[in-house]
Every structure is written in C-alpha cells, then in structure tokens.
Amino acid sequence: MTEEFSNIEEQFLYPIGNYYGEFTPQNLVFNANLQQFAQQVSYLCSLEANGKISPEDTYEEIKKFWKQLKHSKKELLDNTNYTPEE
After folding, report:
1. Under 8 Å between Cβ of 69 and 33
2. Average pLDDT, stretch 23-34?
3. Dihedral angle sign, alpha carbons of residues 23, 20, 61, 12
4. Which of 69, 81, 9 is closest to 34 using CA atoms?
5. Where are the domains of the chain?
6. Which of 18, 22, 52, 81 could be stapled to 47 by a disulfide with Cβ–Cβ 3.0 to 4.6 Å?
7. Cβ(30)–Cβ(73) under 8 Å?
C-alpha cells in the first residue's frame, strides 16, 4: 500500500503530460526535460510569490535550470550524430 501511495504522490507532485509530436527518442527525452523545467519554474515562482525565497535566489535557480535545458537541447536536438546510450 505504501508503494502505491508513493506512486500516486509522485504522479501528483510531478505530472508528466502525453507527448503528441513526431516520435523520436530524442524528442521524447527533450519533452520530458522541458516538462521538468516548467514544473521546477512553477514551484520556484510559487515559493517566491509566498515569500519563501528571494527574487534573486529564484532568478539564479531558474537560470541554472535554463542552462540545463539548453544543454539538453544541444545534446538531443542539435546533435545530428546522437546515438542513444545502451
């Protein structure tokens, strides 16, 4: 029962939408990374709006996550020689 609850809790806290674009492994992984970025930004904005973290800290965290997303795009979508790790 606790494993089932943990799974439901995880789905609630970190929802992942369906992917409807052109299917490639790279597109699917990038979409998941993009959704994770959006979720992280949403949490940070909520924390900042409620006075839990400063605007400067929020900006720095979003900037860090943005750099990770840009790196992901470069590795997955801009790299024409990409081969999935096995």
Report:
1. yes
2. 94
3. negative
4. 69
5. 22-86
6. 52
7. yes
Band (83; pLDDT cuts 50, 70, 90):
low
Q: Which of 52, 51, 50, 40 is nearest to 14 (CA)?
A: 40
Instruction: For the beta carbon of residue 41, count every other beta carbon within 10 angstroms.
Output: 16
**HSE-CB of 1 using CA atoms within 13 angstroms:** 0
Query: Does 21 have pLDDT greater than 60?
Result: yes
Contact 76, 30 (CB under 8 A): yes
Distances (CA, A) of 85 to 25, 54, 82: 11, 39, 9
More confident residue, 14 or 52: 52
Q: What's the pTM?
A: 0.78
- How long, in residues, is the chain? 86
Q: Which two tokens stand for residue 44?
A: 């940070």
Integer Rg of the chain from CA: 16
